[in-house]
Amino acid sequence: MNVAHEVNLLVEEIQRLGSKNADGQTTVKFGVLFNDDRCANIFEALVGTLKAAKKKKVIDFQGELLLQGVHDNVDIVLLQE
């Protein structure tokens, strides 16, 4: 899989599912992203894609790793529109 391509797809999905916060940045809850059928079909390893995007400073979220259920209410913030 091409990591840059996956990160671009992730940005599109965050824009589709997210909403603007007070700072004008697009945010989405991890649970919304994880439980979305379209995202489930696109991303084989969503958590890995999120980690790669965070490393590239495209997104930000609290912690190192997000787990379904435990981190459903964690905001994923899009840093680059």
Automatic annotation (TrEMBL):
Signal peptide: none annotated. It holds the Pfam family Costars. It comes from the Eukaryota. InterPro entries: Costars, Costars_dom, Costars_sf. Residues 1-79 form the Costars domain. One of its GO terms (biological process) is regulation of actin filament-based process. Belongs to the costars family. This is Costars family protein ABRACL. It comes from Seriola dumerili (Greater amberjack).
